[in-house]
Design brief:
By secondary structure, the chain is mainly α. It has two domains: 91 residues, no CATH class; 104 residues. Helices cover 60% and strands 8% of the residues. It has a two-stranded antiparallel ribbon with strand order 1-4. Helix 4 runs antiparallel to helix 5. The longest helix has 29 residues. The protein is globular.
Length: 207
C-alpha cells in the first residue's frame, strides 16, 4: 500500500477542485495548474517550496499565507513562550485590520488604501522585530522559534503581496475550510485499493 495526495485548487468562482497525484513532486504543481497562467495573476499558497518554483517559472506573483506563518509561532510557544507570544500579538493586530476592512465592506482601491495606511506599518514592525530577534537573541538553529522566524523572514515578499493587491486574501483559510471534506471521509476511503478512485473523485469535482 502507498499514500496518495489531493492538491486542492481554489477557483475564481469560489469553487474548489481536488487534483489527485501519487506524491508531492514539484512537477505535480505544473500538472494541476498548467504552464499558461493568466497574465498578471497571483498564486496564493502555503510555504511549500514547489509553489515558489512554479511562480518563478511561470512569472506569477507569489503571495504567501499569514495563517501558516502564525502556525509556526504557535508551534514555538512551548520553547519560547514570551517571544512567541509577542509574534502572535503582532500578527493578531494585522488580522484585526482585516476584520475591520470586512466589517466596513471595503473593496478595491479603498481596501488597498486601508491596508497600506493601517496594515503596512504593522507588517514592517513585525519584520523589524523578526530581524532584531535574529541579531540579538542568540537562539540556536534547532530552536522552534528560530525556525518560525526564518520561515517568516524568507517569505517576506510573499507575505506583503496582500498589502498592494486588494484581491489577494491575507491567508489560505478559505481553502483550508474546503479541505475538511477530505479528512471527514478519510476512514471510509483509506482502503479503496485503487488510485483510479482518487482520479475519479477529481473528475467528479470538476464536473
Amino acid at each position: 500500500m502507498k499514500g496518495g495526495y489531493f492538491w486542492p485548487v481554489y477557483g475564481e468562482l469560489d469553487e474548489v477542485c481536488f487534483p489527485f497525484f501519487d506524491g508531492r513532486a514539484h512537477t505535480y504543481v505544473e500538472q494541476a495548474l498548467g504552464l499558461t497562467p493568466v497574465e498578471g495573476g497571483v498564486l496564493l499558497s502555503d510555504g511549500y517550496a514547489a509553489y515558489a518554483r512554479y511562480a518563478e517559472k511561470t512569472g506569477l506573483t507569489h503571495a504567501q499565507c499569514w495563517a501558516h506563518t502564525r502556525r509556526k509561532f504557535i508551534e514555538a510557544e512551548r520553547a519560547e513562550p514570551t517571544l512567541a507570544a509577542e509574534a502572535l500579538a503582532q500578527i493578531a493586530a494585522i488580522y484585526a485590520i482585516e476584520a475591520q476592512i470586512r466589517e466596513r465592506k471595503r473593496t478595491g482601491e479603498k481596501k488597498r488604501e486601508d491596508r497600506l495606511i493601517q496594515s503596512k506599518p504593522l507588517v514592517e514592525k513585525f519584520f523589524a522585530w523578526v530581524q532584531s530577534c535574529f541579531e540579538h537573541q542568540g537562539l540556536r538553529p534547532s530552536n522552534p522559534l528560530t525556525a518560525a522566524l526564518a520561515y517568516a523572514r524568507e517569505r517576506r515578499l510573499g507575505l506583503e503581496v496582500f498589502l498592494t493587491d486588494p484581491e489577494v486574501p491575507i491567508d489560505t483559510n478559505h481553502l483550508e475550510r474546503a479541505l475538511r471534506a477530505i479528512p471527514m471521509g478519510r476512514k471510509a476511503w483509506l482502503f479503496c485499493w485503487t488510485e483510479n478512485w482518487g482520479r475519479n473523485m477529481w473528475a467528479s469535482s470538476r464536473a
